Amino acid sequence: xxxxxxxxxxxxxxxxxxxxxxxxxxxxxxxxxxxxxxxxxxxxxxxxxxxxxxxxxxxxxxxxxxxxxxxxxxxxxxxxxxxxxxxxxxxxxxxxxxxxxxxxxxxxxxxxx
Amino acid sequence: xxxxxxxxxxxxxxxxxxxxxxxxxxxxxxxxxxxxxxxxxxxxxxxxxxxxxxxxxxxxxxxxxxxxxxxxxxxxxxxxxxxxxxxxxxxxxxxxxxxxxxxxxxxxxxxxxxxxx
Lengths: 113, 117
What we know:
The complex is a heterodimer of chains A (113) and B (117). By secondary structure, chain A is mainly β. Chain A contains no helices and 11 strands. Chain A starts with a strand and ends with a strand. Chain B is mainly β and 117 residues long. Chain B is 0% helix and 55% strand. In chain B, a hairpin with a 2-residue loop joins strand 5 and strand 6. Chain A binds chain B through residues 4, 31-32, 34, 36, 41-46, 49, 89, 91, 93-106, and chain B through 2, 4, 6, 31, 33, 40-43, 45, 48, 50, 55-56, 88, 90, 92, 99-111, 113.
């Protein structure tokens, strides 16, 4: 059974700091991995999707890396801003065809002005 | 705006009530999903519809009944719920690729925050 763990559960940083969020998964037979952002009481917004054959994806100040063999992904946020405050979730999709995404519990990020 | 609209945004109901959650996607996708998000727990997949046919049912109690009348609309009918069913219910959609390939990005609605008294 695939399990996804995100560390830390919560993180508070001053504005402008570069930071790294971690995601680990127990079964390396994944098809892809997604990072999502969730604002309080809202739905999820997809930030980055990395295929299993890729090493990283970048979008603006965000960079996500994937090390499939070791079961790890990181989300790097450069020059953090208060507007980045949210919960960040990672989710992996299994290698066989199908719909199931396994989510982590998320990292709650607070960026202080 | 993600292109997936959920109504109502908030719902309070008693255990004997019957209510329905509605989801509509404006993205031309052919697959729709219901997820449950409880406090301090990972998102749980409840149901998946692909081309209006239910393709996955994640052992959800029968007090939750989904309906997908067409590829743009998805409902979740609720009856005789329990207090532990209180959660954020999220709808999502995606474009189903050809057979044998995994689905790609999910687009989520803002959710319905449900409280069962």
